Amino acid sequence: MNVHDIHSKQDAAMMAGLRAAGSAIEPPTSLDPTTMAVRAVRNVRRRRVVVAATASVAALALTGAGIGAVGAIYADQQPLPGTVKTTSESTRASEPPASASPSPSPSGESDAAPTEYLETGGGTLPVLPVERGVVDGDGHHPYILGGLWYEVPPGGWYAVGDVNAGGVAGFLEPEHPMAMSFDPDPLDMSIDDLDATLELRNVTDVADWTAPEKDSGATTLDIEGADLVVIEQHRKEGKVRPATIRIRSGAEGWIIETRFSADAAGDTMLRNFVGNLWLKDAGEPDWYKPQFEHPTLAKIERGIPAGWQKTEHNDLTFGVPEGWTSAPTEGQFSPGVEWTGTTVTHVEPGIDAATLELWTDASEEEKKRAAEEMTSFERVYVQGGKPGGNWWSQTMSAPESQLIDVPGADYAEVQLTLNNVDGEPDYYSASIYLHQEGQGENLFLVVDFDGGKQGWQDLHAFLGSLDFRR
C-alpha cells in the first residue's frame, strides 16, 4: 500500500504505505524506513493540494486510488460448532437499573419481533443484528491487531501512534478536536494520552472472562473462532454513546472501546464496525472483499524486452514500454524522474467539500485543485536518495514485501499491491527499495501498471530490466 492523500478511502493505505516516502518529504531520522513513512503520513495529511502541484512529490502522494461489499444478515447464517442459537418470541432486554450498566441499543424492531440468542463465554446473550462486510468504497482495507482484523469507519479518520506496532491501536474521528493537530501530534501519542474515538487493546489475561447476565442489556455476535463476544453499550455521555466490546479466542483477547455519536448514525457505525470483525486464524470470511491484495511475484526474466526504451537514472539502468515519455522531478536529495505511459490505471476522485473545509491553512487555489478529479496513468517514478550505507530494512510483517535479485544491488525489496474495485483487479502498484552494492546509491521507485494480464507481464518485464551495476 502506498501513501495517497487525505481522502477517507486512503487512510488505511497511508499508515501501511510507502515506507520510504519520508525521503522525499523530510530527511530520514534513522535507517528505519517505517519511521520515515509515519512522519511522511503526518506531513501528507493536509498537503494533497500542495503536492499535487509538484511532480516529484505528487508521484508519492498520488500512488494509489481505486480504493461495497454487502454480506448476509446474521440470522441467515448457521451456528458454529460449540455455539447454540435460539429464538424467543419477545424479549427486548429491560433497562438496567444502574447507570454504570450497559443499556440496550435503539432498534426499529417491534417488541413482538423474535429475538435471537447465542451462547457465548459460558452464558447466553441476544445477538446484535448487523450486516456483514459493509464498507464505504471499493473494498475492505482493514488493519490487524494480534489475530483480529478490523475496519476503521469511513470519513478520514486519523491514527493515534503507530497502529501497526502491536499491542494497542487508536483512531480519531474527523471531528475530534485532536484530529488535525500537529502540536501535539496524535502520531506521537498513545491511546493512554487522550480519549480516542476508537481504542483497541490486545490482551492475554482473559481466562476469567465470562458473559454478563442474559438480561443485562449486553449483546453478542457470531465471530468464527471466538469463544466469547460481548458488546456492552453504555449510557450517553453528552453527544457520545460509549461501548465496550470484548472478544476472546483461546488465550488471546481484545478490548475495544468506541465513542460513536449517540444517534442513529452512531448506532449504524457501531453495527458496521462489529460486522467487519474477523479472526485471522479462522480465515477470510465469505463476505470479505479486499481493496488491496498482495500477489506473489512470478519468475523474473533478466533483460530489456524488444521494443522497450532503455534509460538510466543515478546508475540504475531500466527499460520502459515504447511510447512512454519522461519528465524530470525535484527530489529531497537529488533530482528524480517520472516515466508515464498511455494506459489509464485509475481515476482519483477530488477531495469532498466537507474535508476541504478542514483545510484552514490551504489557499482557495489549492482547495480548487484538490477538488478536481485526477487521472493516473501507468508510470515509473524514481526518487534519488544519497550514496552511502543501505537505508532500507525489510518489514517482515508486511505481507506485500518480497526480496528480488537485481544485478549490482545488495538490497532490492518490492512491496507489491493489487488494487481492487468491487472485487475486480484495477491496477498493480509496487514500491521498490534499492541499494547499490558497496557504498552506492539509495533509490526508491513507485511503479504502477494496469491490473490486467498485460500489466502483470509488463510489471515483471520492468523488474527484470533493473540493473544497478556501475
Automatic annotation (TrEMBL):
Segments of this protein annotated with the region Disordered: 83-125
Membrane-spanning residues: 49-75
Ranges of biased composition (kind: Low complexity): 88-114
Keywords: Membrane, Transmembrane, Transmembrane helix
Record's keyword annotation contains Transmembrane helix: yes
Protein name per Swiss-Prot or TrEMBL: Uncharacterized protein
Source organism of the structure: Promicromonospora alba
